[in-house]
Design brief:
single chain; 371 residues; alpha+beta; five-stranded mixed sheet; two-stranded antiparallel sheet; 18 helices; 51% helix; globular
């Protein structure tokens, strides 16, 4: 039903015409998802070719973990767009998925990530000192967007940090399904990756994750050029915009609830737990799609093979059935099994790096910024 999903959010809209791209939904996301959990926890939307919307924690977790029934290889977005370069291993199902993950996993363990901490802290301090004297800043432009790129390009990707700004803009546009420049941004991103890999192949090996990808063997054969590009693409997509988005959401909450940064200034040891709670409340991953491979059911609703299924991390993370007082910040929760980094085999490989970046950012920003 073309156009219906762009209208005002009503009970009928939630039941039948849920549109993940609706500007109204963006303004009322958590209020709408809370009503969905109560009224229509699993419902069919007629928008964008049709898809199921899944909002309760238990159902979202089941779909994410059951890769045999719900495939990523058949598309992770609604509306579905077949990528020119598949983001690997996001667009690959187990058991082959595990082979790709094994190539990169050792570079993102807590121990591996810990060696980046001194350089990351130095970078954060330099960035803050660059605008702190002015007494004000546009937070996204001055810190949140450039920080993860500068850190990731220098320490993880082995790429010139001066390319971070360009790549941040390209990834932001490429991953925005409403942008008219999306196709051009994907082309620009993939062109940059191809040039970058050419330079890395010609250079002395660094022994880093990029070298591991270039030299990998998958199922007993050398990795193809398309697979190399797909794996590097996913590293970039996961390493830039997501951390920037989380920092921006954190800052909005701090501005609205100044008692939170005050608490963390008084008790810096609480920052790691606060990062987890902020990720639960304001995680950068909102939703992702899967494709049903067989006839099945979710929450009592019959799902047919081939149906798209959109699972909402943002809704699961505020489900009253899993979290007491789910909309409130509580860094002392006894159990915080949030899904901000996803769940199942496709859980974010870079979660340890993201946690470190977010923790260090708060440890250095909060003492220096009091308003």
């Amino acid at each position: 039903m073309s156009g219906t999903g762009a209208g005002p959010i009503t009970e009928d809209w939630r039941a039948h015409h849920f549109d993940l791209l609706s500007p109204a939904l963006a303004q009322e996301l958590h209020e709408t998802l809370a009503l969905m959990r109560d009224e229509h926890p699993v419902t069919w939307s007629d928008q964008h070719g049709g898809y199921w919307v899944v909002t309760r924690y238990e159902d979202v977790l089941r779909v994410a973990q059951d890769w045999r029934t719900f495939s990523s290889e058949r598309g992770v977005s609604v509306p579905y767009r077949k990528p020119e370069v598949p983001a690997i291993p996001e667009h690959v199902d187990p058991p082959v998925h595990r082979l790709y993950r094994q190539v990169v996993n050792s570079y993102f363990t807590p121990k591996a990530v810990a060696r980046y901490e001194p350089a990351t802290r130095d970078l954060v301090v330099r960035m803050i000192e660059g605008f702190a004297g002015d007494g004000r800043c546009e937070f996204m432009a001055a810190f949140a967007r450039p920080f993860p790129g500068l850190s990731f390009f220098d320490q993880v990707l082995g790429a010139p940090p001066d390319a971070a700004e360009e790549l941040s803009e390209l990834t932001l546009t490429a991953t925005d399904p409403t942008s008219p420049d999306r196709a051009a941004a994907w082309a620009g991103l993939n062109g940059w990756i191809e040039d970058f890999l050419g330079r890395r192949r010609a250079a002395t090996p660094r022994g880093d994750v990029v070298d591991a990808i270039i030299g990998a063997e998958i199922d007993g054969r050398p990795i193809t050029d398309l697979e190399v590009r797909g794996m590097v693409q996913l590293l970039i997509l996961g390493g830039l915009d997501t951390t920037a988005g989380a920092l921006g959401q954190f800052m909005i909450r701090f501005a609205r609830e100044p008692e939170l940064p005050d608490l963390l200034r008084r008790d810096p040891a609480a920052i790691p737990a606060a990062v987890e709670e902020l990720l639960r409340l304001e995680g950068p991953f909102v939703a992702i799609a899967r494709t049903a491979m067989v006839d099945t059911e979710i929450g009592g609703q019959a799902v047919r093979a081939g149906d798209k299924v959109l699972i909402y991390w943002a809704s699961a993370n505020r489900d009253e059935g899993e979290f007491a007082c789910p909309h409130a910040f509580d860094h002392e929760r006894a159990r915080n099994r949030h899904l901000a980094f996803g769940a199942g085999p496709h859980r974010c490989a870079g979660s340890n790096l993201a946690r470190m970046n977010l923790r260090i950012a708060l440890e250095e920003l909060l003492p220096r910024m009091h308003d």
